[in-house]
Amino acid sequence: MLKPGPVWAAGTMSGTSLDGVDAALVLSDGEQIFDFGRSEYRPYSDSERHVLHAALGCWPDDEGVDAAAEVVETAHAEILSGFSEASLIGFHGQTLAHDPDGRHGLRRTHQAGDGSVLAEVLGRPVVWDFRSTDVEMGGQGAPLAPFFHFACAKYAGLTGPVVFLNLGGVGNVTWVDPRQPGPEVPGAVLAFDTGPANAPINDLMRMRRKLDQDEGGALALEGRVDEAVLQGFLNHPYFLRMPPKSLDRNDFHDMLSRVSELSDADAAATLTACAAASVVRGGEHYPVPPEAIYVTGGGRLNAALMVALQSRMNIPVQPIEDIGLDGDMLEAQAFAYLAVRVARGLPTSGPSTTGVGALIGGGKISRPG
Ligand SMILES: Nc1ncnc2c1ncn2[C@@H]1O[C@H](COP(=O)(O)OP(=O)(O)OP(=O)(O)O)[C@@H](O)[C@H]1O
Ligand SMILES: CC(=O)N[C@H]1[C@@H]2OC[C@@H](O2)[C@@H](O)[C@@H]1O[C@H](C)C(=O)O
């Protein structure tokens, strides 16, 4: 068992954009955040990314999964070997497939990478497979960052309800009331995935311009939003579902065909408006209006997306740096914090975050032999 008091844990995230691995240190006792430490980013090479892309949608027994797991384990072993000050590792792995509602068969979620292999290589305990138990118990298995977002709101000294918005490949929000004593208390957090965020914009840029992303949102800023496409997108049944709810990267696979008739700039503007509008639609579910929205993830660097959000909302939409947090590393930090919670036997999700029936602690702990 973990010694009492705060410990330094290193968390990692390999997100749905498949760009690379983030790793970051957090000093925590699993409840409070005492400090944030250094962080690092290790990009995937083109060939590694190709292997991961090819394995998207795969389940553990499918062909191609072993190669993807090896890429994930190798990249994580490399980046984590530099974090010798961490006594505990929180290893998220790479989500390849996520079907918590069993729409394609079994209800399940799949993060590639074996934490027991990393525990051996690193010689330290590794907490991993954070999402499976939640799904097995009837939850969505995502988002899992909300309990960490609650601790962040306390760390930042916030005093009223706010929203943390992560704009990664997929968007997700956590509505947080930091006046509550802890994240497990009813009314402290409400979380769900909002819709596609950067993934369709990236896919468009790759297909039409051979670029990885719409840098700064420059192309979208040149274009005009096609209102008919936007309205059609908002008719998707996902937006009628009550939270908790979560998405697979491929759930909105038809986004590019929706904009196929538009110019590059209009298509970028329209996909950007779709991402922003889906976040706004999500606002219907907040128990109490938030005082501000703090944006984390790569999408906060897309000016077109930030402008589209602010123009649709009457509360401040600010990058999370404005409250002293690191928008590039928040997800990696989340899995460091959650690793400490798992090691201490504290819950990592509950009815208001993943929809699981009761508070549960997910995650396996693998120790070096
Ligand atoms: N300077 C920038 N201009 C425009 N977009 C950017 C910029 N920097 C990052 N992005 C967008 O953010 C994405 C990366 O975001 P992030 O790292 O938060 O995603 P992720 O963690 O992989 O995804 P998820 O949170 O869904 O798992 C990039 O793929 C790109 O679309
Ligand atoms: C299944 C899965 O990996 N989901 C990710 C993904 O990326 C963003 C969004 O979709 C969120 O639900 C989740 O990640 C964050 C870190 C979470 O669990 O809170």
TrEMBL record:
The record, for Pfam families, names:
AnmK
Which chemical reaction does it catalyze? 1,6-anhydro-N-acetyl-beta-muramate + ATP + H2O = N-acetyl-D-muramate 6-phosphate + ADP + H(+)
User: Mind telling me which InterPro entries this protein's record contains?
Assistant: Anhydro_N_Ac-Mur_kinase, ATPase_NBD
The top EC class, named as a word, is transferase
Its Enzyme Commission number(s) read 2.7.1.170
The pathway noted for it is: Cell wall biogenesis; peptidoglycan recycling; Amino-sugar metabolism; 1,6-anhydro-N-acetylmuramate degradation
Origin superkingdom? Bacteria
GO molecular function list? ATP binding; kinase activity; phosphotransferase activity, alcohol group as acceptor
Gene Ontology terms: biological process:
1,6-anhydro-N-acetyl-beta-muramic acid catabolic process; amino sugar metabolic process; peptidoglycan turnover
Q: Which UniProt keywords apply?
A: ATP-binding, Carbohydrate metabolism, Kinase, Nucleotide-binding, Transferase
Cross-referenced HAMAP family: AnhMurNAc_kinase
Q: What does this protein do?
A: Catalyzes the specific phosphorylation of 1,6-anhydro-N-acetylmuramic acid (anhMurNAc) with the simultaneous cleavage of the 1,6-anhydro ring, generating MurNAc-6-P. Is required for the utilization of anhMurNAc either imported from the medium or derived from its own cell wall murein, and thus plays a role in cell wall recycling.
Could you tell me what this protein is called?
Anhydro-N-acetylmuramic acid kinase
Q: Which organism is it from?
A: Thioclava indica
* Gene giving rise to this polypeptide: anmK
